[in-house]
Amino acid sequence: MLQEFKDFIAKGNVMDMAVGIIIGAAFTAIVKSMVGDLIKPFIGLFMGGVDFTNMFIVLSGEGTYASLIEAGDTGAAVFAYGAFITAVINFLIIAFVVFMLVRYVNKVREAAAREEEAAPAPEEPKGPTELEVLLEIRDSLKK
């Protein structure tokens, strides 16, 4: 059983998957930082600093709350549609950024493939022709 486990782990697919997950986690951090630190501030600037996070409707209780956190702390049931809108906007931004990165990587890959196709194949070293071999055999038999 231990040997089967070692064989399973040693297979290329498992190792490729593990590397993919690790790289994916690191890539996720980069994309989140790019969206949160670089893109969202510009969107907020153009939208006039609108923050959807604190848009909610109180479903239970009579009080009014200044923020969603305050309402949640008191235990009031809230319909937090602003958090949903924010999540949708974040998803669209992240999906667009990932699309642009994948598109760029595909263009680089295609350019590399075109360069490989355009590069002439190295010529194979030419060996002696059949006639040259026969002449050599004839000459060696004469001796």
- Give the uncertain stretches in residue-range form: none
- Helix count, per DSSP? 5
Secondary-structure element order, N to C = HHEHEHH
- The number of distinct β-strands equals 2
User: In which range does the helix fraction lie?
Assistant: over 70%
Overall average pLDDT: 81
Task: Kindly give the count of domains.
Answer: 2
Strand order of the largest sheet: 1-2
**How many angstroms does the end-to-end distance come to?**
69 Å
Structural class: mainly alpha
Shape: elongated
Beta-strand fraction estimate: under 5%
Q: Which radius of gyration do the C-alpha atoms yield?
A: 33 Å
Q: Give a quick account of the main beta sheet: strands, pairing sense, barrel closure.
A: 2 strands, antiparallel
Overview of this protein structure:
By secondary structure, this protein is an all-alpha fold. The chain has two domains: 1-48, Large-conductance mechanosensitive channel, MscL, domain 1 (Non-ribosomal Peptide Synthetase Peptidyl Carrier Protein, Chain A); 51-119, no CATH class. The protein has helices spanning 2-10, 12-46, 68-74, 81-118, 130-142; strands spanning 57-58, 78-79. It has a two-stranded antiparallel ribbon with strand order 1-2. The relative contact order is 0.07. The model has no long low-confidence stretch (mean pLDDT 81).
Give a brief outline of the structure:
With 143 residues, the protein is mainly α.
